[in-house]
Every structure is written in structure tokens, then in C-alpha cells.
Amino acid sequence: MPKAKKIEIEFYANELLRCMKGFAAGREPARERTVKLPSPVKPIPAKQIRAIRLGLGCTQTEFATLFNVPAARRLVKQRREDSPRPFSA
After folding, report:
1. Which DSSP symbol is given to 28?
2. What is the pLDDT of residues 21-66, one digit of tens each?
């Protein structure tokens, strides 16, 4: 797949506002643009992720840091704090 060519895009705030006001008043037509999204990534099974992590010699926290995601313990703790607690008399 060839690399995408970077294009400098000029931004004119006043022109944008003028068009938005014109569209709201019915004077400007709406413009539509279709963007092709990449296909979804196939999920990796937990056992395979663990094998990769162990192969790298990382703890769960270190592995999570590599991908800028919260560590599992923090996620579990957050879920517990966010979940509704049963009413107790």
C-alpha cells in the first residue's frame, strides 16, 4: 500500500462561520464527503496476549504501559467503584 501524501490544509475560521450561518439560513448547500474506514482489527485471544507479554518478560503493568492503556488491576478497581452497590438495610 503506497504511503498517503500529506497535504497542508488551509483553515479559514471566518469562511467556515459564514458557510455555517448560510447553511442554517438555507442559503448555502450542505457538502458531503465520504471517507473509507480501515477494516476492523481481528481481536487477539487473551492467551496469545499473555504469551506475547511473557515472551517480552514484562509484567502486566509494564505491558499495559507500552500500549498506553490502564493496567488490569486499575480497570477492575474502576469497574468495582463504578458499579451500583446493592441496597443494604
Report:
1. S
2. 888 898 888 777 788 888 998 999 999 999 999 999 998 888 888 8
* Residues 62 and 72: beta-carbon distance below 8 Å: no
C-alpha 64/C-alpha 45 separation (Å) is: 16
**Is the CB of residue 64 less than 8 Å from the CB of residue 70?**
yes
The torsion of the CA quartet 74, 75, 77, 83, rounded to 10 degrees, works out to 160
CA dihedral 15, 22, 36, 3 (to 10 degrees): -10
Instruction: Enumerate residues 6+ apart whose C-beta is below 8 A from 71.
Output: 60, 61, 64, 65
According to the model, what pLDDT value does residue 5 have? 75
pLDDT for 68: 84
Q: Are 66 and 60 in contact (CB under 8 A)?
A: no
